[in-house]
Amino acid sequence: MDERLARADAALRAGQSKAAIEQLSSLLNADPLQPAPVYRALLVELYRTDRIGEGASWGEVAAQQHPGDVEILNMLGVMYRRLGRASDALAALDQAARLDPKSLAVQTNRGNVLLDLDDAPRAEAVFTNLMRADPRNAEYQRQLARALIKQGRPNPARARLRQALLLKKDSLEIWLDLIGLENDAHRTDEAQALIDRALAILPDHPRLLEARIIVLRRAGQMAQSQAYALELLQRFPNAAWLHVQLGNAVVDQDRERANVHMRKAVELEPGRLDYQMTLIESLERTRSGDEGANIEEAYQLARRVAGSLNKGPGYLKILNEVLIRVCAFDEVDQLGDFKSLGRSWALSNRHSALLKQLARVRTLEDRYELLEQHRIWGQLAEAAAATSPIKRPPRRAGGGKIRIGFMSSDLRNHPVGYFALPLFEHVDPQRFEIYCYSFYQGAKADQLQEFFAARSKAYRWEPGINSPGAAQMIADDQLDFLIELGGTTHMNRLDVMAYRPAPLQASWLGYPHSSGLSEIDYLITDPFNTPPRRDLLIEEPLVMPKSWIALGRMVFSDRHGITPGLPEERNGYITFGTANNPHKYGREVIAVWSQVMNATPNSRFLFVRPESGSQSFRRNLVAEFQRNGVEPARIAFTAVRGAHMQHYNEIDVSLDTFPLTGGTTTTEALWMGVPVVSLRGEAFFERLSASILANCGLSDLVSDSRDEFVRAAVDLAGDRSRRLALREGLRERMRSGPLGQTETFAQDFYDLITRTVGAR
């Protein structure tokens, strides 16, 4: 026997893994032509000591030397799975299965990887065969249930899990899967009863105590969830999982307090990547305090952990959002391609992540792919809704007032509230009854929310209600027409529309794309933003005669003063700028903006964004402009949230983003006398600014190519007299046009709804 092999054998017998690995790897490096058991021994020790990256590398060498060894291929597949390389894992395990179709270990690992890949039908077949081979194996029953759940088949999954419990009643994982299944079905009482039963068998098990907090929170019982967590904190003050759950329980009411708990969890268990990701996500969403510092901290934490992550769709979503906030374009591209990312988010019920996909569209194929991603989410949401259908009251007798529902958690001091305001100011109570539905988690109503409530037949503010309950509440109001205004933006409930609580349903205002639900009949548009290609919308466009929006007085008022004269006159140079969200930026956008600046000598570019307080945001954008020939000194940043309107007085021309254009920011710039140059595309979200500019008589500032965009911006920068005339007269032009004639807008809106209801 080789001396190194003898020493390795001795180390293995003594339980000295590190020494064994050193001897075995040294032997194999010196002589790769070793028998398969030597490689197997090394792989086992690398796996046992959690040296997975090394294990995969040695597994590849082992598979090359012994391509017919089932155990090596099986271990290689397991290593790949641990590294998040599911496709590679499946290839290795498929090869092992071809060599030995009866290997239970190989088939079990194949089934697990298929579940990772969301290939639930094939996973179901694998675990069905395994269960037939060993019907008393509780784990096979559990994994079969998981495959059924992924296919939207909760009832047979429930039966499998209950059978698994009969076989192994002390299995924590089976209890948690069954509790999760009931929780996902919004069967809160059943989930609570299961937790009680599980705790009788596994007293004070942390994951069961944690499950109760989650069940209460998912049921909308936020106060009870928080109270229970605080009660547990007296008993378990240093339980990291409890601090995470406390943070989650208070995050919508007090983000800074939530961060304190999440930081504590990371401090207590620094090795838990999921706790670090929870903190990263919360920091990125913290709008109070020093927002730029919060973003910077989130980004630096994300960079630190990114290489260690098994990048499932949840973690990829968090990383994507953080990287976008600081314009880390290279790192965003490394997360994955447009199709794979979007579909993974859709399949994992992460609709809100799809908003960030809009700015990544480049081709017509991308536009159709984006539609498909939304459809995938919509089909899953509708399948989930079908498992707990609502009761439909009998239809009201005709002839009465038309009942219109507005569903949004943003009917308050929020941009959605500002644009919705004219409909409440000018509603005819003799013809219409207005119902509002909000799930806002704030502690009290603000002034604008109180106004909406006063102008409504009913303002149902239910922050604790679940989606089936919300759908039933809406159905009980017997509406004629329901309009959702929020998509899946924070605290909104797009999935309620999947239950079809009203006979006619539409989307408007809050989300610039088809939602994906076939149960939403219409998307409210106007002649300028309706896509020329009808098949770029899932819903039927319900077209307003002039504009799909009007200006609410809360923002569009004279309290925002316009500084007389031009910024150019005060500064001695032209200032271009934007207040658009960084998720709308991209390399191509910066390149076109740079072309404009290069053609306008001595010009500057100003970013009016809270992200400007982040060093990485500033550094990345300066570098991108510099790559396109614009000196760093010509790029300026103003870090501000909320009180940003005055900073338009420092901008001569606003350059729009593309393909996702501005909306609120375009109207704000124009209101402050700042002209906007925009690039129009084919899809709805590429035509928002085009609609606003057309309704202000500025269609010549809308371009259909990047070259036209550059020419329009450069020409406008050189036309001082026109810019001065717009600075002095644009606000009045908006007031007197379709955007400012709020009463006419409201009448057109309600007439459109009336005709649609009448045609039903």
Keywords, separated by commas or semicolons:
760 residues; alpha/beta; Serine Threonine Protein Phosphatase 5, Tetratricopeptide repeat; Rossmann fold; 7-stranded parallel sheet; 6-stranded parallel sheet; 33 helices; globular
Task: Provide a quick synopsis of the model.
This protein is α/β, with parallel strands linked by helices and 760 residues long.
**CATH structural class of the largest domain:** Mainly Alpha
Low-confidence stretches: none
Which fold name corresponds to the CATH topology of the largest domain? Answer: Serine Threonine Protein Phosphatase 5, Tetratricopeptide repeat
- Trace the largest sheet across and list its strands: 3-2-1-4-5-6-7
Oligomer: single chain
Please tell me how large the radius of gyration is.
29 Å
CATH superfamily of the largest domain: Tetratricopeptide repeat domain
Q: What is the annotated CATH architecture of the largest domain?
A: Alpha Horseshoe
Distance between the termini: 87 Å
Percent strand equals 5-15%
The chain-level mean pLDDT equals 93
Number of domains: 4
Helix percent band: 40-55%
Coarse structural class: alpha/beta
How many H/I helices? 33
What composes the largest sheet?
Answer: 7 strands, parallel
General form: globular
Q: Can you describe this structure?
A:
β11, α29 (about 665-670) and β12 (about 675-680) form a beta-alpha-beta unit. This protein has 4 domains: about 5-215, Tetratricopeptide repeat domain (Serine Threonine Protein Phosphatase 5, Tetratricopeptide repeat, Alpha Horseshoe); about 310-385; about 400-555 and about 745-760, 3-Layer(aba) Sandwich (Rossmann fold); about 565-740, Glycogen Phosphorylase B (Rossmann fold). The mean pLDDT is about 95. The protein is globular and about 90 Å long. α6 packs antiparallel against α7 and α18 (about 290-305) crosses α19 (about 315-325). It starts with a helix and ends with a helix. The strands form 2 sheets. A 7-stranded parallel β-sheet has the order 3-2-1-4-5-6-7, with helices on one face. The protein is of the alpha/beta class. The chain has 33 helices and 13 strands.
